[in-house]
Amino acid sequence: MRLSDIKILLFALVATLTFTACDETEEAGEFDNWQKRNEAYIDSIAKVARANADGDWKIFLAYGLIDTLQWGNQYYVYCNVIEEGDGDEMPMFNDTVLVNYRGRLIPTKSYDLGYIFDESFTGALDPETDVPTKLNLAGCVRGWTTAMTQMVRGDIWRVYIPSELGYGQSGQGAIPGYSTLVFDMNLIDFERIGTPIN
Predict the structure, then answer these.
(1) What are the tens digits of pLDDT across the range 123-173?
(2) How far apart are CA 161 and CA 113, in angstroms?
(3) Is 23 helix (H, G, I), strand (E, B) or coil?
(4) Helix, strand, coil abundance in the chain, percent, nearest 5
(5) Which helix (H) or strand (E) holds 21?
(6) Is a pLDDT exceeding 80 seen at residue 1?
(7) How far apart, in whole angstroms, are the C-alpha atoms of residue 164 and residue 179?
(8) Among residues 104, 53, 87, which one has the least CA distance to residue 155?
(9) What's the Cα-to-Cα distance from 175 to each of 110, 118, 153, 190, rounded to whole Å?
C-alpha cells in the first residue's frame, strides 16, 4: 500500500470517528423517538399499576370495550389514587362533571414533571378554593371518560392515558401525536342530563 493511500485511509478513519463522536454527544431533541418513548413509559406505568405494591392503583379497560385477553397496555387507563372521596355514585357517559384538572405530557429533558398542556388551576391543587371546570364527558377523550366514570365526588387521582385513548397519532394543539397523557383529576360534582348541579 502506498503512503498516499495510507494517509487517505487514516484521514477517513479520523473523520469517521470525529463524526461519530459528535453524533453521540449531541443531545436528543425534546420529542425524538416520541412514539417509542411514550410506549415504553405507559408500559412501565402498567407494570407498576399491575404490581399494585401499595394498593393505590386502579386499572380500567377503555370505556366501551369488552374485557378479553386480547387487549394490550395501550387499551387500559392506569389510575393512581391520591385521595379517596366519599359516596358510591359515579358519573355516567352523558353526564356533565365539575372537575379540577392538570394535563401533562411524559417527562422530558426540559420538563422533568412533564410539559403542562392544559390546567384548570395553577399552583398546588386546593379543592376548597380552586374553581372547577364544567365538562360534558361525552365530549372528552376516551381515556378521560373511562377514568371519570369510575370516580366518586372528592376523588383525586393521577391518571395515565395511552395515546390510543387520547389524541392518537395525530395529536392536538400542543400535544404531539403518540403522546401519553398524564392528568391530575379531582371530581368535585356531576349532574345527570336534565338535573342541574347545585
Answers:
(1) 999 999 999 999 999 999 999 999 999 999 999 999 999 999 999 999 999
(2) 16
(3) helix
(4) 30, 25, 45
(5) helix 3-25
(6) no
(7) 9
(8) 87
(9) 15, 10, 28, 27
CB 59 within 8 A of CB 77: yes
Helix H or strand E encompassing 158: strand 156-161
Q: Are 79 and 145 in contact (CB under 8 A)?
A: no
Q: Which helix (H) or strand (E) holds 8?
A: helix 3-25
Beta bridge partners of 159: 79, 183
CB atoms < 10 A from the CB of 197, how many? 14
> Model confidence over 26-59: pLDDT tens digits?
456 888 999 999 999 999 999 999 999 678 999 9
**104: which strand partners?**
116, 182
Are 192 and 113 in contact by the 8 Å Cβ rule? The answer is no
